[in-house]
Amino acid sequence: MRYQISGRHIDIGEALQTHVKAELGETVEKYAQRPTEAVVVFSRNAHELVCESTIHLSTGLTAQAKGQAAEIYAAFESCRERLDKQMRRHKRRLRDHHNRRSEPVEFGAGASYILAATEEPDESSESDDMLQPIVIAEMETKVPEVSVGEAVMQLELSGQKLLVFRNEGHGGVNVVYRREDGNIGWIDPRNSK
């Protein structure tokens, strides 16, 4: 596993980095057999120290956690405990879903684009070029083919606000998203012909 441990406006020593690698490696190995990368960032928020961790798994899932405390080691332990809880839930849910699933999850390829922010157009310079967004970057992203329940599980575990997936029930592209009221929304634009 590749580690990226850094401090934002604070210095972190070699002892802390060794401690983070040992503890985080132990936690991740307990629940996920194939982690690929761990990013840990320490920072200061007023009088508290903050530890933010992101772990990328080979399954495409990303686990994120944040811990705060007066001391840097305590902030990391708080963050590690949250990651431990997320990973334990993830493993339990996967085990429960795999009992019902006979085949592994398939991923399809999809295009992902980053568009430049648009400026307010002038009244005098209205042209067709202003209506076309500028593409800054093109990437390929993985779109899983899962059930709605599994998509909601992945959304909750990853901590993201939105997940695009292919519904294995009918093959259409669907979206699940986190609403402002804390509930989960589901968009299913089936083509009715």
Automatic annotation (TrEMBL):
- Tell me which InterPro entries the record gives: HPF/YfiA_ribosome-assoc, HPF_long/plastid, RHF-like, RHF/RaiA, Ribosom_S30AE_C, Ribosom_S30AE_C_sf
Give compartment(s): Cytoplasm
Question: What would be an example GO MF term here?
Answer: ribosomal small subunit binding
Q: Which residues form the Sigma 54 modulation/S30EA ribosomal protein C-terminal domain?
A: 132-185
Q: What is its main location?
A: cytoplasm
Would I find Ribonucleoprotein among this entry's keywords? yes
| SUPFAM superfamilies named in the record | Ribosome binding protein Y (YfiA homologue) (SSF69754)
Q: Would the keyword Ribonucleoprotein be found if you checked this record's keyword annotation?
A: yes
Q: CDD domains annotated for this entry?
A: RaiA (cd00552)
GO BP terms = negative regulation of translational elongation
GO cellular component entries? cytosolic small ribosomal subunit
Ordered alphabetically, the record's keywords are: Cytoplasm, Ribonucleoprotein, Ribosomal protein, Translation regulation
Q: Could you tell me the superkingdom of the organism this chain comes from?
A: Bacteria
Subunit field text: Interacts with 100S ribosomes. Associates exclusively with 100S ribosomes, which are dimers of 70S ribosomes.
What is the recorded function of this protein according to its Swiss-Prot or TrEMBL entry? Required for dimerization of active 70S ribosomes into 100S ribosomes in stationary phase; 100S ribosomes are translationally inactive and sometimes present during exponential growth.
Supply the NCBIfam families for this chain. Answer: yfiA
Q: Which family does it belong to?
A: Belongs to the HPF/YfiA ribosome-associated protein family. Long HPF subfamily.
What is the name of this protein?
Ribosome hibernation promoting factor
Originating organism: Gemmobacter megaterium
